[in-house]
Amino acid sequence: MKLQSKRSLLTAAMVLGLGVAAVQSAQALTIVLDFVPGATTDINGVGTLSESFASWGFTGLDLAGVRAATLTAVNKDYLQYPTFGSNALSPLPNGKELNINFSLSNGLTGPGNGDSEWYYMAIGDANPNQGFLGQACLSCVRNSSGVASVANGSIFGSTLTDSISGLLGLASNDTQRINLLAGTVAHEIGHSLTLLHPTSALANPGDSLYSVMATGASPTSMPNAERVKDRAFAYSEFSSLIQSVGLRNVSAVPEPSSYLMLALGLAVLALRSRKAGQAR
């Protein structure tokens, strides 16, 4: 095939591909879920050690699977919240999502998405044991005006897997075990983004009357059995997240038919180019 024909195909592919696979550009903020490989200490002096999850009773997830499932669950809480179009109680406008990203790390490595601002949530066994499930600095990653008060790259909080493992008797499958872990991760991140413990159950789109920010202690006094459910942020809590984090347009996900049209277009162009070459 001649150079001109190749260029024609390339140009056509680019034209047909416009709007088909537009990838969301890197945003301003990433929270990195750091499954610590060794001794780590957060900005409040809480230490963590590596956790293999070997004693958690997962039946279909290895260590990599546990990490990936936790990331998926946290993404769901923050980036797959129902919009007003599907739920009239939701404060999230159609076509929008929170302006935040999440990624995985195993040793304080920065996100690979190109974000210039990121903070770490340490995930591991407490060193020494703390007696609580996790902690994070309040409104430190974003205050109500959308401003951070901690240095970029800080470990702003810790999720303590040895404390959470004391609740494993409530879980009967892998999904519930991930809910225990990811629910705590999402909860502690929520604190860093201005959210407080509610005083009672709150209206929300999840599987529990209690929101992600509910706690088993006062002021919420949530029954621990609720922790294995797929909880969600309350509508009022998500409204606060919108104020502190901001919104962006939802990334366009290509429809399978778009890929088919692109493939067919390239096939037609290739056939025409071959016929033109044979006619010369």
UniProtKB/TrEMBL annotation:
Respond yes or no to whether keyword Signal is given for this record: yes
Ice-binding protein C-terminal domain residues are 252-275
Q: Which organism is it from?
A: Roseateles oligotrophus
**Hey, what's the signal peptide range on this chain?**
1-28
Q: Which InterPro entries match?
A: Ice-binding_C, MetalloPept_cat_dom_sf
Protein name per the record: PEP-CTERM sorting domain-containing protein
Keywords, alphabetical = Signal
- Keyword Membrane assigned to the entry: answer is no
Listed Pfam families: PEP-CTERM
